[in-house]
Amino acid sequence: MNFDDLKQLFGLTFRDPDGAAVMLIRSGLPMPVRWMALIVAVSVSAILSWLSAQLFVVPEAEAQSIMTISSQPLVMAGLQLGAIVLASLLMTGVGRLFGGEGRFEDALLLTVWIEIVLLVVQLVQVALSLLSPTIAGFLGLAAIVLFLWLTVRFTKVLHGFRSPLKVFLGLVGTAFVAGFALSFLAAAFGLMPDMAR
Fold this sequence. Notes:
Helix content: over 70%
Largest sheet: none
Oligomer: single chain
Low-confidence stretches: none
Shape: globular
Radius of gyration: 18 Å
Structural class: mainly alpha
């Protein structure tokens, strides 16, 4: 895929996300290229997050928790990589539980592409923050909606489902269960803050 293909795919993602998902699945990209795209995407995202933390002042109460992660781009990139792989596994496994036929390889590619699209939005948000923090804030909310919308549409195409609403409900349920399980594991390994004080 050259730059013109990527530009066409980017536009198609907003006009017809189902068509973009089909185009990605049929691209036939080898697995090493998909992993490489993931590494590049999370690396650029971590650098952008670090840059944002350097450019903008946050309230002192929030500064410590934010800077702990954002000041370590390698740690942030590793966390994002793990989150995307986990999301791809869940997209594949949960979809198959409900009769889907999607493969992990394609789920990974679709999830990485969502990350790339959000990277472009993040880049615009950083630029807008220098001019209008309020508009940049609204763009951040729009990015969340875009993430959910693309995840639902891509999951639907990946597994051949018909109802976006059912896919959305499955996504919410999966996120809830996964969040609970991760919180339980974090507490079991002593990674959760002590709330008793």
